[in-house]
Structure formats: C-alpha cells, structure tokens
Please model this.
Amino acid sequence: MTPTRTSKLERGRSALGPALELVHTGRAPTRAVLTAELGVTRATAGAVAAELETLGLITVDSSPGAASGTQGRPSHRLSVNGDGPVVLAAQVHADGFRAALVGLGGRLIATAPGAGTASADPAHVLREVVEAGAGLLKETGRRCVGAGLAVPSAVAEPEGTALNPLHLAWEAGAPVREIFTRSLARARIPGIAGETAARGYAANDINLAALAEHRHGAGRGAEHLLVVGTGHRGVGGALVLDGRLHTGSSGLALEVGHLTVDPGGRPCHCGSRGCLDVETDPLAFLEAAGREPGPEVSLLKQAKELILSDYESDPAVRTAVHTLNERLGLGIAGLVNILNPDRVILGGLHRALLEAEGEHLRAVIADRSLWGRSGSVPVLPSSLQHNSLVGAAELAWQPVLDDPLGALAS
Model:
C-alpha cells in the first residue's frame, strides 16, 4: 500500500493514542468533542472510541444525550473505564513510602501506606514498596500494565540515578530506576505486552506532582505552569511548558529549594544558608511556631494540623504562617520574574500556608515581582490528593497512551 493510500484502519490506529489521552485528561467528554479535537470524521472517531472500549480502556455511553442548554444532535459520552487496567505507583519520602494502584484519569484505586521511616538501603525500601503494591494487585485482581516511582531527589537522565536524596540516608547517585525495575521483576509485576515484567520508571516527586496537576488537577489548561511545594522535608519546584514537563538537559532543572531567601538563615544541606529548602518546610514552620516536632507523626502532618487547629487561637502559629509566607513569597517572586508562568500552584505545606493567608502571600509575590504587579499570575492550591503518586502513574501510563493497541495486545 502506498503512503498516499493509507487505510482507514491505519488512520484509526494512529488516532488511538491521541484519543485515549484526550479522554484520560478529561478533554474529550463526548464523541463529538473527540471528533473535533482529533480533526477526523464522525465515523472515524466512532471507530476509534469503539476500539478503545474493546481494549477495556474507556466506556462509551450507549444512550447519548445533549447537555443542558445545548443544541444539535446528542453525542455519546466518553469516560475512562473504572474497571480497566491499572498501574502500580510508588512514592518514597523522608517519613516512609506509599504504594498505590492508579487507573486512567488519575484515579486512585487502592493505596497502601508503608513504614514510618525510609531505610538507608534503597534496595530494601523499594523491595518493600513493590511488595506492598503486589499485595494490592492480589487483593483487587486488577490487570497491571506498568509501574512508576516518585523520589525526593533529582533523577538524572538517562541513567535513572538519584543525585541528591538529601532527606533520605541514601548514597548520592543511587541507581533507583535499576533497583526499582529489579524489584518489579522479583515480585513478578506485569507490564505492557511483550514485557516479561514491568519496566520501572522513576522521577523527582515534585516534577511528577506538577505533571499530575497539569493533566488532572488545578494546572489543567495552563501553558506555562509553575509548581512549588514542600512535602515531608525540603522544597521542590517544577515547570510544565506547552504541556510538557521541563526537566532540563539531563533531568535536573528547577532545583528551586536552593534559592536563598534569608542570607543569614538556617544552614542548608547543600552547604549554603537560608535556602527555601530549610526556611519554608514543615520543620521550619514547627520551629517558627515554637513547637517541638514529635516522632510519632510525620512533620508535614504535624505542621498542617497545627495550622488547621491553632491558627485562629494561637498568635505564635499566626506569626509562623506570616513569616513563612514572607520567605515563600520572596522565592516565588524570583521564579515568576525568571520564568513568567501563567499559573502558579502550591502543594504540601505551602498549600496550607496559602489557604491560611492567601491575600498576604499573593501581596508579597506581587510586591516583589515585575509580572506579579499586574495581578495576572494566579496562585492556586494544588487540587489532587497524593499528586506525586498520580504523577508516578503517568510515567507508567505513557507507553499505553502512546500506542494503546501495541501495549495491550495479547
């Protein structure tokens, strides 16, 4: 067959991936929208939707209906299949780990929290988190098509090594992707068609949080999305440009935790002083509020609960929120000046600081940034629970999004 006589079947197959991504990200809620977004005929869009339904990836409403206030022929509604395949998502952080099964659409199907601390041996931790995920697969009986891992470190590409796990007792340069992949093979976690075991993917946790928020959360629709957040320890940042995660030439871009916001501040793990990493994380907040960190609960949980319970009644807590927002606003303003994003999302403790004193934080950013003065840069809280886990799942879903038929062919 010559290139000028591409069959309908070939055209349809080439549209399967783009179509699945549109449904996966909620941008094609109906077959009519899918037709328009793909730029194909209604017949082709119908055939593509039917093939994705046959693969068990989406569902097509058999009784189309028009939305209220609309005109024209009713269109079949499209949604991800809630009973379809899943991927294993794993996250390691300073206070332990968590495993989850995540379906299309960023839907958390099941989660399993892990140990209260992360071992100094990455092989031990990753073996445990994979075993927890294997337990979830056994309990649910779901088909697994891949696995992704979020870690609190820059992950170098293409080596897949954790270069600076500052808040874990791991050796710098730990080959986390290789260890993760070996753990998946040992646990016999399946992957896409043609793989004897799932291929392991790994990336920085805040990068993955940004990817998840852009596809499924508060960042949906942004062209230049900046995400800043603090989880259990430290501060991270990520940038999504034109729908793609910006990781730099080797996966190390946006190490925003080491922006200096107080030259005379706390010593940082990087060797400097007064970095965002140590001035606006949960430990810094607890210290500013005059609270002694407790060993039984994660620092992040302690800090967030303190804001919720004592902000109105305790002046020390209000002062701590105000102080950290001053520091955080200064750092974000610098990033806004450099990157000129069209949206900023704050996660983890930073979300709680924004929700407690949003007007003050936005005023600091506006006062310190050229573009912020115009009031045109929305600063929003993250909207997804466990967004780093959802982002880790996105890594594993990508081969299916790229070629659904090839990935799932038996």
Observations:
- The first strand starts at residue 58 and ends at 60.
- DSSP finds 14 helices and 14 strands in the chain.
- The domain at 219-381 is CATH 3.30.420.40 (Nucleotidyltransferase; domain 5).
